[in-house]
From TrEMBL:
SUPFAM superfamilies: HD-domain/PDEase-like. Signal peptide: none annotated. It catalyses: guanosine 3',5'-bis(diphosphate) + H2O = GDP + diphosphate + H(+). It comes from Rotaria magnacalcarata. This is Guanosine-3',5'-bis(diphosphate) 3'-pyrophosphohydrolase MESH1. GO terms for molecular function: guanosine-3',5'-bis(diphosphate) 3'-diphosphatase activity; metal ion binding. Its cofactor is Mn(2+).
Length: 176
């Protein structure tokens, strides 16, 4: 519990200047909290290391946080999950997106669980409102790109799978 509370504090501090891309400029920390909330309150995940990793999942990718720092603060398991979920922002966006699809089947089961909740949060967020500057086409592309990764990650948690299948069905997007 102590480590989990530390993750809340640490993530809130690291993301403190960031906003989501929605018109309301929601504080970015709402996203990692929401991802942990899906896992804990909708899906019944009670592994505090996974919930802490959910809170921290965008810190290396989107803030100055390093892997070594996470390892020092939270130990190898939590730091490892976050590292697995970190896209290399030095790469062009199309390449990052391609790699998420290509590397999906290399993720550990712990990382899969967090990645699926991340996608659920982001897809629901797109249903709630369109990020500033995004066209309807771009929203559709995000759904379609997600539908290429997510099915590779099915089979680890039935409830997460069901939520995602429903999100794609609602948009008439096929997944295999
Ligand atoms: N739907 C939505 N997404 C927002 C919003 N604000 C920030 N984001 C973030 O934007 C990312 C998706 O936008 P893209 O244009 O596809 O990706 P990019 O930011 O990496 O270039 C997600 O990153 P991520 O969590 O790292 O996940 P991933 O999609 O990169 O795997 C998501 O969390 C918002 O208002 N709505
Ligand atoms: Mn995320």
């Amino acid at each position: 519990m102590e480590k989990f509370m530390h993750a809340i504090q640490f993530a809130a501090y690291k993301h403190r200047f960031q906003k989501r891309k929605d018109p309301d400029q929601t504080p970015y920390i709402n996203h990692p909290i929401g991802v942990a909330h899906i896992l804990s309150n909708e899906v019944g995940v009670n592994d505090f290391d996974i919930l802490a990793a959910a809170l921290l999942h965008d810190t290396i990718e989107d803030t100055q946080t390093t892997f070594d720092e996470l390892q020092q603060e939270f130990g190898p398991r939590i730091a490892g999950i976050v590292a697995e979920l970190t896209d290399d922002k030095n790469l062009p966006k199309a390449e990052r997106k391609r790699l998420q699809i290509a590397n999906a089947d290399k993720l550990s089961s712990d990382a899969v669980i967090v990645r699926l909740a991340d996608k659920i949060y982001n897809l629901r967020d797109l249903n709630r409102c369109t990020p500033v500057g995004w066209s309807a086409e771009r929203v559709k592309e995000y759904f379609e790109w997600s539908s290429k990764i997510v099915p590779q990650l099915f089979g680890h948690n039935t409830q997460l799978d069901t939520i995602l299948k429903e999100l794609f069905l609602q948009k008439n997007i096929r997944f295999d």
